[in-house]
Every structure is written in structure tokens, then in C-alpha cells.
Amino acid sequence: RMVAAVLAGLSLLSLLTCGYLAWGSRRGGAGGAPGSPLGEEPAAGTPSSQPHIIFILADDQGFRDVGYHGSEIRTPTLDKLAAEGVKLENYYVQPMCTPSRSQLITGKYQIHTGLQHSIIRPTQPNCLPLDNVTLPQKLKEVGYSTHMVGKWHLGFYRRECMPTQRGFDSFFGSLLGSGDYYTHFKCDSPGICGYDLYENDNAAWDHDNGIYSTQMYTQKVQQILASHNPRKPIFLYIAYQAVHSPLQAPGRYFEHYRSINNINRRRYAAMLACLDEAINNVTLALRKYGYYENSIIIYSSDNGGQPMAGGSNWPLRGSKGTYWEGGIRAVGFVHSPLLKNKGSVCKELVHITDWFPTLITLAEGQIDEDIQLDGYDVWETISEGRRSPRVDILHNIDPIYTKAKNGSWAAGYGIWNTAIQSAIRVNHWKLLTGNPGYSDWVPPQAFSNAGPNRWHNERVSWSAGKTVWLFNITADPYERVDLSSRHPDVVKQLLRRLSQFNKTAVPVRYPPKDPRSNPKLNGGVWGPWFKEDEKKKKKSDKGKGGNKQKKNKNKKKAN
After folding, report:
1. The 3-state secondary structure of 354-394, one letter per residue
2. DSSP of 499-539
3. Long-range contacts (CB closer than 8 Å, 24 or more residues apart) made by 531-535
4. CA 311, CA 93: separation in Å to the nearest integer?
5. I want to staple 365 with a disulfide (CB 3.0 to 4.6 A). Which of 132, 142, 240, 262 is the partner?
6. What Rg do the C-alpha atoms of the chain give, in angstroms?
7. Any residues with CB less than 8 A from the CB of 393 and at least 6 apart, and which?
């Protein structure tokens, strides 16, 4: 009896994990919404010509960390979806979380939203500027139901910054950039700690059941799909926390990776394996509930991998947080029955800002003339193999980042101050100035030891004072041959383009931290702390003070 009880318990536990589910024709199952049994026929009505849009954003997945890029980590779901769709092999994002997410949701470069420096910190009174129209807002205009599950990281200091105020009908996930996968707690600094799991605008204490976030988010996605009418268009933005640190994963996902000695790489592999299975379950749910045939699934990483946290960008140079290819060239693909050239590879230039106009056009929406977008409609490029309308990418201009000591206007031919961190791509050419960040190539052998080992890394010792680099990325995607001294005319052309972009930049938004952000002052929860009433009160007090001063002045005059 005791053995039978143990086996029954193990059987129940296995059903709760994010393993592959045999959906078949069964009713019920993990993730099904209450009162919406599996196998139920879609509601009657005229099917929409507008496609269902499912955007899946992974966090910190390295360029090499997918099976079809030669990784030792198995990703059968991603490999299959990409092989049957279109692989994006000249696809760029930003080097960190907030920048990529802001550009996805607005279609604008960072210099045009004021978020060109670093990320939005939990204690900063900062968020994606409210005057920017967002992708879900535009989709709602043309009848889409919009839902977000996962990591927001676009600011929350005031209620108006929350996902449900920026175009999403529902939100389930975290507001910050990272946190514990099981407890959903995050400490920004010693003593500044709080809970970070939300359902719409409130802390989701009821969901705090110690479930691993990848599994929990997948179950939520299944519930949304089960309860929505597939004859009406849906936009589902799934921003998984994985594979961002802290490196945590359910035990059973380590089974295939015990041979990896490096503990960070082993944990990272387990996290990615769980993520791959979760995406399989999302795809199965799309099929089961009648969405798949009219759906577009887009998969993207938000930036390059972090080798010290288990990620690999080999053979690309650099890592997350840098403007080398390893920081900004991402894993990406589109899978859809609506694609014309299925099973192909797109080598045309595509950037994360392009999803905004591309998806709005596919949704039969309108892009207002007064919205100055930096993205392009690239659907024909992806679906039909046509040339990309994009010929350049401003990777960024960050006037606040630590200046390169030897940078100068002279080094920039009087066109540009090369002390400033910037990077730009024009056709085949890529130019970097200032301090581009960690520049090693980190081969697979670097993960062969139990601890971090940089002896395997390849480095180049640049001449002292170097602040300008030029590469032909088409011929040299690994950035091994600097051509800046050989092609000064090309350098000047790209510096002029940088200067032109810089003239359109808005001021940087990077305020100091606000002590009112401490979760201790907000019931132990990270959340909006800036109250509109306080702002009005201050204005009112100021007005009263001004009236008092006027009265005193009049009194003096009368005397």
C-alpha cells in the first residue's frame, strides 16, 4: 500500500510539470480553464480574416543556445517550429531587457523614447513615456483581444505605466527585470525587497503556490486560449522570465545535462529545456482550441546570452550588455500556416522595431501619420523572400554611458565625439565608437570546467586609445578584422549618419532612485508608488503659496 501511495504521488507530480502533454481528444488536463473542457468546439460565428498573433520573447537566450545553431542543449520544439517556418538569420535586438521591450512595443529606437541608457531600475520613477502609442493599443483599435503573460520591465512607478493601462486587456506576470522563479521575490539592494507577481493591477498572492514561473506562465496562456473565442482575433504577448538569472530549474530537467561540468551552464541548459517544452505546450493549445491555422507565432530573444550566467553566443563576439554581435544578434524565427515560403531562411536585415508596423499591417490596422516610426513592414521579406526595406539600424547612442578615455572629436574627424558609446549598421558596414563593452569570444570549451574559466576565451589587444571600429558584417560576422584604418571614407559616412540620428534624439530619462519605491511602504509588494493625489496636492499647495505671496505684495503696496 505504501509503495502504491508513493507511486500515485509521483504520478500526480509529473502531471503538474511542464512536460509534453498528450492532448489528443481528451477533455480536461493541465492548464485548461475552469468550465472550458478540452475538445469543446469553437463558438459559432464568422471567422476573422485577421490573424491571431502570438509573440514569444525569451530572456537572455544566447545566439548559440538553440539546437539549429549547433548547441549541445536540446530544443526540439524550437528546432521544429523554426524548420517549418522562416529562420531569421540577420535579426537584431538591443543588448538589454528594457531597450528591446520598449522598441518592440513602440516601433521606435531608444533615442526617440528617452530610454537610451541602461534599463529601468525598480526604484526609479521612470517608465515607457505615456505619450508613446503601443502595439497592443493599436491592435485593440481593430478589434483584437490583447493579453500579456510574463515579464514587463517597462516601468511601474505610477498606475498609468502598468501593462493594463498601456493596451493590454489582461496582465499576469512580473513588473521587474528578474526575481526568484518560485517565490517571485526580488531584492534590488539589501533591505529593499518585495513580492513581484501581478494579476492585472494587483499582487497575485492567490497564485503564490511555489510553481516555477515557466510552468505557471504556460498554464495561464492555456487558460486564456481555452476561454477566448478563436473566431475573434487575439494578440498574446508571452514574455518568459527564462533563461535570465537566477539560474533555477525543476530537478527533472537536469537529467540530460549531468555531463556538463560547469554548474551555471548545466542549470542554464535545464532552464532552456523546460522553456522548450513550455513552448510546445503553447503550440499544442493553439491547435487544440482552434487558433493555429490562422495564427502567426513569432519567437525572439530579447538580447544576447551572458556567458558568466551560462549563456553562449559562439561564434559571435561579446555578450549581453554590449554592442558586439553577441549582444545584439538574436535567435529569431516566424512560424505560421500563413507564410508563403515555409521552411526557408531569411538573411535580410530585420530589427525588433519592425514588428510594430509589420503586425499592425497584418492585423489590418492603420499607422497614424504623426507616429514617427523607426521600424519597417517586413512581412513580404519574411513570408515571400523579398528584399528588406531596411538598409540601416541605429543600434544606439548612449550619451550617459562611461566615456572612452581617449575618445575625441579629432578621432571622429570632427564629425563625432568618439568618447560616446554608439553603434550603427548601414548595409554591410557596422561602426562602433566609445566603449562597446566586453569583447571576448567565448567558445564552448570555456564551459568545460566546474567554474568560470577565461583561459579558453579569445581576446584581441587593441592599440592603446582605440575608440573607433569598423567591420564588414556580411563578410566578417564574427568581428575579427577591424577595417577602420583601411576605409576612413566609410568611417566618415557612418559617423555622419550617427550625427544625423543624434539630431532627432530626445533627452535621456534616467532619474535617481525614489525612496518611496521601497516595497515596505507598499505592503511588501513592488508596485506603483507615485500617487496622483500627492502631485495635485503639491500643485495646490504651490498655488496657495503663490496666492499668499501675491496678497503680501498687495499689502506692502497698500502700506
Report:
1. HHHHHHHHHCCCCCCCCCCCCCCCCHHHHHHCCCCCCCEEE
2. HHHHTTPPPP--PPP-GGG-GGGGTTB------HHHHHHHH
3. 532/158, 532/159
4. 16
5. 142
6. 25
7. 92, 349, 351, 424, 425
The residues annotated as belonging to the active site are: 97, 153
Q: What are phi and psi of 7, to 5 degrees?
A: -60, -40
Residue with cell 505546450: 281
Cell numbers that stand for 302 in this block: 530579447
**Phi-psi category of 479—alpha, beta or left, where left has phi over 0 and alpha has psi -120 to 50?**
left
Q: How many residues does the chain have?
A: 559
Strand 468-472 relative to strand 429-433: parallel, antiparallel, unpaired? antiparallel
Give the CA count within 13 Å in the CB-facing half-sphere of 349. Answer: 18
Q: Are strands 86-88 and 344-346 parallel, antiparallel or unpaired?
A: parallel
Hey, which bits of 399-475 come out as E strands? Answer: 421-426, 429-433, 468-472
Spatial CA neighbour of 396 closest among 113, 129, 141, 201: 113
Say if CB 104 and CB 360 are below 8 A apart. no
Nearest of 372, 371, 390, 395 to residue 380 by alpha carbon = 390
- Listed in sequence order, the residues at least 6 apart from 195 whose beta carbon sits closer than 8 Å to its beta carbon are 184, 185, 203, 205, 208, 519, 524, 525, 526
3-state secondary structure 135-185: HHHHHHHCCCEEEEEEECCCECCCHHHCHHHCCCCEEEEECCCCCCCCCCE
Q: Whose grid coordinates read 499576469? A: 172
d(CA 85, CA 486): 40
